[in-house]
DNA sequence: GCAAAAGTGTTGACTGTACACCCATGT
DNA sequence: ACATGGGTGTACAGTCAACACTTTTGC
């Protein structure tokens, strides 16, 4: 019976097909009440001048997730990523013809973060900016390089789904925040209207979703000043917050 | 404004780090009432003699999913995979040290299928057999090559989660089947007991989950002969079939 | 006072669970 | 007859959506 050990170090690497591995990052944020994603304009062929997800080759000794963080920082000039940022693996895209240069398998990541400063061009001088997801969807939407439109669709769906059964909606907000601000995140990401009172009850009924600060916002507009909250320790939402609209099933999501 | 076209064909491929891409397949089935996975015994270093998931290098012009099907067939001698088999991408594993030979990024797939014939050794003479998932879990479980133990854990959790909100439980059964057989799949995969009457009501209340044949099984054991069903067209289960046990949250799943 | 936004209370529909009960068959 | 597993009925508890209502602010 084997003890299941790696055995002696190999003498030489065996042959394998020439396939490149990249990471692509879909950074989602809510700016001015709109769900937005970060895109960079490509400076080189192929798809020169096209908008694309930030991404690039994985280094030989680099973990995939580290590569995602690195590319995000390099290509967008966003050096200080917010501590509350969330990043998870989305899916791997490997159609043989997705890159005209060669066979490229891309591991896509989704990130969610509060509104960020307007990104400076990255180290390789590409322009980076946020685009509203609305401007990409539909047949007349902005065209993206490679299969990035598909990745965006999958990633946005993943985010919509994650909001149902995790507390990640709060990752889109700077602390402190109000329950109305949190509700507007849900409404924008899902594209629906939610009953304020029922939303409030639901959020507060989940222990650790949000923590009350016991303070009120200084009234900026007419109406009663809202109470302020920060993110709690809970990560899972149980029972889930379901998106309305008939009683259709949630879209299938690819994921952890 | 760019029209977002790939542009002229590239002159030469640019340099990229030497990273190999493989697929690994976690085939789940229920044999003799036990949730089992298919493993192959490695014939070559590293981890010679260890049990591992079937898998191998992706060919240069091969789609990832095609590679998963090919490896499954090649390494297990299972040439005629059942039509009802389900296969989906699980997650990509790319820790820099997961393979001692070189940098290997592996795209893992999960498959679910009815009980299959005992696999013949694959084309490269490796032994293939099914192992009960129970025999792998826990600190005294079978040790697997590479990080395959982690992949198995993630994949089993994915399957448990999929049973909650999809009709995939029926993918484990040969048609026709009875509702009790379907219930036993759920009970085994989740490791719980379910109330037969409530399970029945739930399954039948989902349009298209199962289709009654209008026949009864020829009584093989004592008791009333059950009615027979085949899989329906529905893929999504709404509302979901929740696993019991307190009201704990479902484990987070990585997936579509 | 009035408008506006935050927050509370109440009700009815629906879902899931537990469990008592009936049905059809082998022995 | 009776044990065994299939299948039906029912009643209680929890959750959610709808919406009326109260509170606290700016103007």
Task: Write a structural description.
2 copies of one chain form a homodimer. With 256 residues, the first copy, chain A, is α+β, with helices and mostly antiparallel strands. Chain A is 21% helix and 23% strand. Chain A contains 4 helices and 9 strands, in the order ββββαβββαααββ. Chain A has helices spanning 64-76, 148-165, 179-190, 196-205; strands at 20-31, 34-41, 51-52, 55-57, 86-93, 104-112, 128-132, 210-216, 227-231. In chain A, a hairpin with a 2-residue loop joins β1 and β2 (34-41). The model of chain A has no long low-confidence stretch (mean pLDDT 89). The structure holds a DNA duplex (27 and 27 nucleotides).
Q: Tally the beta strands of chain A.
A: 9
Please write the string of helix (H) and strand (E) elements of chain A: EEEEHEEEHHHEE
Q: How big is the Rg of chain A?
A: 21 Å
Total helices of chain A: the number is 4
Q: Could you tell me the strand content of chain A as a percent range?
A: 15-25%
Low-confidence stretches of chain A: none
Largest sheet of chain A: 7 strands, mixed
Mean pLDDT of chain A: 89
Helix- and strand-based class of chain A?
alpha+beta
Largest interface: A-B, 65 and 65 residues
What oligomerization state is this entry in?
A: homodimer
CA-based shape of chain A = globular
User: What separation lies between the terminal Cα atoms of chain A?
Assistant: 34 Å
- Helix proportion of chain A: 10-25%
